[in-house]
Structure to design on (329 residues):
């Protein structure tokens, strides 16, 4: 496979290169792509140096697959140009996620929807991916009615500029700000931009994307997204109301048997998921599983994952692997 990584110098792009290498993705030619600022820079992959190229050059090289993580504007403009020359694009931005002509895929849940005709495939939002990984098996068993989620999102979800802001604040250095306020020793109830309804774009992604991934709009999701000064991964407090009753032992068993999900749940030993330990892991960690005692058939849980791994790079590469394994590219 001739594989282009668009946004190779960014936070997600760097992890993509790492994950491609770890999983030994069948690459015959790697094409690292970034903005004009980075053209000519060197990227090392499996011990070999590659020069970063611009988007136009990359299209002219007609890769089989292009893994995009270079922002929505770049995807909107350039993904169709790659698709036109026969490249299959897997896109990490929000550009195509809610486009009814594009598939939104978490491989463990709905890879079966993919066909050879899909030339632009969307990777869901990082907070959505980790949430649906835990919700999908429970929905199949007990049928969800309503989800209320509050997120505790790491600065790595915003990109390199935000990580630098936190590091600068810790070091007492004045530098460029990614957020409108300090993030160190703070919590910003503001991820992405505000929409007219008073919710942020991130919150609306959490509300809409799960229905598309699970191909079911009989349940609803209400979200509050908060940025906190962690770097390892995103955490989520999730309250789910089901139509049918459950018992907690079955819920734990179901989740622990779900590929890609790890249950860490023992209050006797203070065992629960935390972003510092989810960092650099591909799995989604679930704990604090307990019954909501205020209403019937309702569950509370705490879900943590590395937003740059399962929330972005790993999920993208799993989609690409599925395409290759099923002869869809
Ligand atoms: N961070 C996350 O947890 C996460 C999760 C899921 C999805 N995403 C999405 O992934 C994308 C990248 O996020 P990130 O966190 O990796 O951001 P980032 O660290 O700021 O990196 C952005 C990358 O895109 C490149 N780029 C920017 N403008 C470009 C242009 N006009 N043409 C070509 N390349 C361009 C940059 O190249 P230069 O180095 O040359 O500027 C860099 O490689 C965003 O769409 C984001 O929404 C991020």
């Amino acid at each position: 496979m001739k594989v282009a990584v668009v946004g190779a110098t960014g936070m997600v792009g760097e992890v993509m290169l790492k994950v491609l290498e770890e999983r030994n993705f069948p690459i015959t030619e790697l094409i690292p792509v970034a903005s004009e600022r980075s053209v000519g820079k060197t990227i090392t992959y499996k011990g070999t140096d590659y020069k970063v190229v611009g988007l136009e050059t990359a299209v002219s090289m007609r890769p089989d697959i292009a893994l995009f993580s270079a922002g929505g504007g770049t995807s909107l403009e350039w993904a169709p140009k790659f698709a036109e020359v026969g490249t299959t694009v897997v896109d990490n931005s929000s550009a195509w996620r809610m486009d009814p002509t594009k598939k939104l895929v978490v491989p463990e849940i709905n890879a079966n929807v993919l066909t050879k005709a899909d030339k632009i495939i969307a990777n869901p939002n990082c907070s959505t991916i980790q949430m649906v990984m835990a919700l999908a098996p429970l929905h199949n068993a007990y049928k969800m009615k309503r989800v209320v989620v509050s997120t505790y999102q790491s600065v790595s979800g915003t990109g390199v500029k935000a990580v630098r802001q936190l590091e600068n604040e810790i070091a007492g250095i004045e530098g460029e700000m990614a957020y409108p306020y300090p993030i160190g020793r703070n919590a910003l109830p503001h991820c992405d931009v505000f929409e007219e309804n008073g919710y942020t774009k991130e919150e609306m992604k959490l509300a809409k994307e799960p229905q598309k991934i699970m191909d079911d709009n009989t349940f609803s999701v209400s979200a509050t997204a908060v940025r906190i000064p962690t770097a390892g991964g995103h955490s989520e407090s999730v309250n789910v109301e089901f139509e049918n009753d459950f018992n907690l032992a079955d819920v734990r068993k179901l989740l622990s048997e779900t590929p890609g999900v790890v249950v860490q749940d023992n209050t006797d030993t203070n065992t629960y998921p935390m972003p510092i330990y989810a960092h650099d892991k591909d799995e989604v960690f679930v704990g604090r599983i307990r019954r909501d005692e205020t209403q019937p058939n309702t569950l509370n849980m705490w879900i943590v994952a590395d937003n740059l791994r399962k929330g972005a790079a790993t999920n993208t590469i799993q989609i690409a692997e599925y395409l290759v394994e099923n002869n869809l590219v």
